[in-house]
Amino acid sequence: MGYFPTGVTIVTSWDGASPVGSTINAFSSVSLSPPLLLICLARENPIREPVLESGVFGVNILGCEAEPLAHRFAALDVVDRFEGHPFSAADDGAPQLAAAPVFIDCAVEAAHAAGDHLVVIGRGLRTCHASASAPLLYHRSRFPRFDPNG
Questions:
Q1: Which of 49-88 are b and which e, b meaning 16 or more Cβ less than 10 Å from the residue's Cβ?
Q2: Nearest 5°: phi and psi at 53?
Q3: 21 forms bridges with which residues in the sheet?
Q4: Which of 36, 74, 126, 142 would give a disulfide with 30, using CB separation of 3.0 to 4.6 Å?
Q5: Short-list 114, 138, 110, 136, CA closest to 6
Q6: How far is 132 from 147, CA to CA, in rounded Å?
Q7: Would you state the pLDDT for residue 150?
Q8: How far apart are CA 54 and CA 59, in angstroms?
Q9: pLDDT in tens, the chain (150 residues)
Q10: Domain locations in the chain?
Q11: Residue 133 burial (10 A CB sphere; 0-12, 13-18, 19+)
């Protein structure tokens, strides 16, 4: 699957009152009406239970300058992934990273076990487009550069 290039996101949620997040590249649009999307969470992903328990998650779509942030939220040895990275949240929403050019706030619609992953369907509630940054891509364990303007 590493030969298929993907965008890079950080999925965020709440563990009680504490923000949690993880770098995810298994993200896709499902439906425009209603607005549904999916994320896939590995069985050992630390945000899996918080997403299910809180019923909300946010998809922070990363721009090309956010490779260090993607590494930070993927690292298993980082205790507080949010330290030094400002975020905000609507009263009933998930954490939105200030560094993400695009954010989609979601409510969990359904969850389906699929092998060693959980496919979570979310209903898009709010979006924020902060900038038109080029996307951060992932391909064959690297972050290649992409110029959308050719």
A1: ebbeebebbbbbbbbbebeebbebbbeeeeeebbeebebe
A2: -70, -40
A3: 12
A4: 36
A5: 138
A6: 12
A7: 64
A8: 15
A9: 777 778 899 999 999 999 999 999 999 999 999 999 999 999 999 999 999 999 999 999 999 999 999 999 999 888 899 999 999 999 899 999 999 999 999 999 999 999 999 999 999 999 999 877 888 887 777 777 777 666
A10: 6-138
A11: middle
Nearest to 103 by CA among 81, 125, 73: 125
The residue type at 73: F
CA distance 125 to 93: 9
CA dihedral 66, 13, 94, 91 (to 10 degrees): -140
39 alpha carbon, distance to own chain's centre: 8
Estimate to the nearest angstrom the gap between the alpha carbon of 91 and the chain centroid.
19
Say if residues 7 and 135 touch (Cβ distance below 8 Å). Answer: yes
Domain at 6-138, CATH class? mainly beta
Chain Cα centroid distance, residue 76: 16
Q: Is the pTM of this model over 0.85?
A: yes
Tokens encoding 103: 């954010």
